[in-house]
Write a structure and sequence with these properties.
The protein has 424 residues and is α/β, with parallel strands linked by helices. The protein is 23% helix and 27% strand. It is built from ten helices and 29 strands. The termini are far apart.
Length: 424
């Protein structure tokens, strides 16, 4: 391992290891062709861009992305949007698909195993610290602040934590901590979550962000790999072991959350269900959104396609190209269509007499004439047939499309094709 100069920023001595192999099965058909971190979000970006942008904006220039499930879309996005790292500046971004590097029969067996199988690559970076990140959450965070807290405390692991209402904490891995922030117990989805010191109504929940000294984690991973009873997972195996035998510290998200002047509360979302995905996108259309994407001091980097500006045409009663309280991306043409409280990704075409309300429309969708679409998510490249009505008749929506209990409708091309084959 290379010597570290004492005047270096901590982030220059660290690497980000992003776990991006999960399917995200609760997103249903949205992840049939892509992993959850590759799902589109916010008009231009993908979900993984938030973790990577946080690392980049925090000063981290060494990153690795472990992929597994249906990774082509994700890898292509990485190659197109994140290929600006230069080795001659000591910058690296490696894509690490599960490629049977250790055994011909062994894919990534768990989150910890994804790091274990790439120990030699992490070694080659010559880093002192490793930040393990989930690649499927929406938030803005300065990892340098968390890294400094880790170093100051002398912890074996520092875990990023959210403050959540105790009644909602059963869906998370949660921590019991003492007054100093030291974790005394790590519980995976407990029925009766513990309260926080001085705040019994709230619980600290894991964000899936872990900071380790690399040498400590390296030794731990090697021992874990030899344990036949381990599931080789950070949350199930390694973290509880450190809590029991070492020093684990909690770092509260509010201490390192990046906020502009418009954001009132720390913003973190797991957009892992159709409802949550729809809501987080629609929230961006609010007059003052909870997440400020317009904050140029903390940009969300992504692959920026070279496309013409959005265009609005026709100005007649009943046929007016218009958008109200909506985000409309480049290469969209709103042609005599009415768009309200919606988010349109790149290349959407909305034709005359159609309407979109509370709609999240992924790239290159075509909405044909007189279609009326409300409370829906439309997958990439879908061609909406003329006159289709969605969001008015729950039974009809559920007959052809995936409708959630709260009334959000997911539309894919396969669903449209089945409907067209039967309706004629």
């Amino acid at each position: 391992m290379q010597d570290q100069r004492p005047n270096q920023r901590l982030s220059s001595q660290a690497m980000a290891f992003v776990l991006a192999g999960g399917r995200g099965s609760r997103l249903k058909e949205l992840t049939d062709r892509r992993a959850k971190p590759a799902v589109f979000f916010g008009g231009k970006t993908r979900i993984i861009d938030f973790a990577l942008s946080n690392a980049l904006n925090s000063g981290i220039r060494k990153m690795a992305i472990a992929t597994q499930y249906k990774a082509h879309s994700l890898i292509r996005h990485m190659q197109r949007g994140w290929s600006f790292f230069r080795a001659e500046r000591n910058e690296y971004l490696d894509i690490l698909p599960a490629s049977q590097r250790v055994s011909e029969h062994k894919w990534y067996m768990g989150t910890a195993d994804a790091v274990t199988q790439n120990i030699d690559i992490v070694d080659s970076y010559g880093v002192k610290y490793i930040i393990v990140l989930a690649g499927d959450h929406i938030y803005k965070m300065d990892y340098e602040i968390m890294l400094a807290a880790h170093v100051d405390s002398g912890a074996d692991v520092t875990i990023g934590c959210l403050t959540v209402p105790r009644a909602e904490a059963s869906a998370f891995g949660v921590m019991d901590v003492d007054e100093t922030g030291r974790i005394t117990a790590f519980l995976e989805k407990p029925k009766d979550p513990p309260g926080m010191p001085g705040d019994p109504d709230h619980t600290l929940a894991s964000m899936g962000i872990y900071i380790f000294d690399w040498q400590f984690l390296r030794d731990l991973l090697i021992r874990d790999a030899e344990d036949p009873n381990s599931s080789h997972d950070f949350g199930n195996d390694l973290i509880p072991q450190i809590v029991k035998n070492g020093k684990a510290m909690a770092h509260q998200f509010a201490d390192s959350c990046v906020r502009s002047g418009l954001e009132k509360e720390p913003y973190w979302r797991d957009v892992g269900t159709i409802d949550a995905f729809w809501q987080a996108n629609i929230d961006l259309t609010d007059f003052i959104p909870k997440l400020d994407l317009y904050d140029n001091s903390w940009p969300i980097w992504t692959y920026a396609e070279l496309v013409p500006p959005a265009k609005f045409i026709h100005d007649e009663d009943g046929r007016r190209g218009m958008a109200i309280s909506s985000l409309v991306s480049g290469d969209c043409i709103v042609s005599g269509s009415e768009v309200k409280n919606s988010l349109l990704f790149t290349g959407v075409r909305a034709h005359s007499f159609s309407s979109l309300e509370y709609a999240v429309v992924l790239p290159y969708v075509t909405v044909n004439r007189r279609a009326q679409l409300k409370n829906c998510v439309i997958d990439r490249g879908v061609i909406i047939p003329e006159g289709l009505v969605v969001g008015q008749d729950p039974e009809e929506d559920a007959r052809w499309f995936r409708r959630t209990d709260s009334g959000i409708v997911l539309i894919t091309q396969d669903m449209i094709d089945r409907r067209e084959a039967q309706v004629g």
